[in-house]
Amino acid sequence: MKKIGVLHGMERSFPEAFVERINKMGLKDISAEPVKVDVVEQGAPCGYDVIIDRISQDVPFYRAYLKNAASTGTAVINNPFWWSADEKFFNNALAVKLGVPVPKTVILPSHERPTDTSDASFSNLKFPLSWEQVFAYIGWPAYMKPHAGGGWKSVYKLRGPDEFFEAYRQTAQLVMMLQEEIVFEDYFRCYCLGRKYVRIMQYEPRNPHHLRYAVNKGPASEKMLKKVHDYVLLLNEALGYDFNTVEMAVRDGIPYAIDFCNPAPDAEVTSVGQENFEWVVEHAAKMAVERARMHQPGKDNLTWGTYVSDGVSRFLSSATQAAPATKAAKAPAKKK
Which SS3 state, helix, strand or coil, does residue 126 take? Predict the structure, then answer.
């Protein structure tokens, strides 16, 4: 019997509906349940073939548990090793490489020195930074936000240098990004599951949280939806996320990827609405069952994005080419 688990925190509507949906499929060889965690021994299997992770971003103990589970063959969604390494500024840099439009962005050193560092720790950092160059590149208004993490925590809209420096002082040891404002005429939030199932939702981030999916606009053109759909798949294929959301703001007919590092995206029925909720439950269940059927006991069942896998392929190829050819052993000379 293949077993699918969902690891979650205070969230209830999605995990419960997800488990119920799989168990109602009537599959004789697959079942689902909330993950049960007790003693975690190093290198010991956790008993789950697939785990959907909804909480480890907030609980380091769970992240360590999932890495251990992955090392013994569990297909963890999303890959806990990549999730630990990824952050939003890198996402933007990768998008530039892929040709996906993103807002102009710079990363900033934390306003306060990290604990256990001194001035000598930053001998490579020019201080003060070339602030006039930063402001000329980004323009005003601008947004400042953490380079890692999710939600709307520590996000500032700034209208000039005075507001910037005041907000910057409040960020303490957080590493922040400064990003140009995209004044948009349309906005989309898109679920992407299994790097193939895409749900494009019109969204209004300026509305109160519970009304952001209640958008009083006409439908977007098929051409625009196709472009958004293709960008969503391209980004998630490169990053390797199997459960993610991508937010895109349309300015002058161009969709800009605003936020696409959301590996535990909001899926509460009270915020996303019944229709979107039904879609994400159905496709998350479908994806998890597919991964359970593909699961190979004791093997590495994680998925990796093309950014990592292509890099590994290039390394192996170059290593093979650089290896010296083995000379054939000479046959011993015959005695005369």
Answer: coil
Q: Which two tokens stand for residue 212?
A: 């952001």
Q: How far apart (Å, rounded) are the C-alpha atoms in residues 133 and 140?
A: 13
> With contact defined as beta carbons under 8 Å apart, do 107 and 88 qualify?
no
Question: With 0-12 CB in 10 A as exposed, 13-18 as middle and 19+ as buried, what is 202?
Answer: middle
Is residue 240 within 8 A of residue 305, CB to CB? The reply is yes
Q: What mean pLDDT is predicted for residues 130-142?
A: 98
φ/ψ of residue 32, rounded to 5 = -135, 155
Indicate the pairing of strand 186-193 with strand 243-251: antiparallel
The CA distances from residue 96 to 92, 102, 195, in Å, are 6, 7, 20
| CATH number, span 104-180 | 3.30.1490.20
Cβ-based neighbour number of residue 241 at 10 Å? 28
d(CA 66, CA 60): 10
Write the class of the CATH domain 87-101+182-262.
Answer: alpha beta
Q: Which residues pair with 244 in a beta bridge?
A: 192
Sequential DSSP letters for 38-93? ----TT---S-SEEEESSTTT-HHHHHHHHHHHHTT-EEES-HHHHHH--HHHHHH
| pTM across the whole model | 0.91
Q: Which token pair is 292?
A: 């359970």
When pLDDT is cut at 50, 70 and 90, the band that residue 331 belongs to is: low
Tokens 């290896």 correspond to 323
User: Residue 217: its pLDDT value, please?
Assistant: 76
Asked whether the predicted pLDDT for residue 336 surpasses 70, the reply is no
- Residue boundaries of the structural domains of the chain: 2-84, 87-101+182-262, 104-180
335 pLDDT above the threshold of 70: no
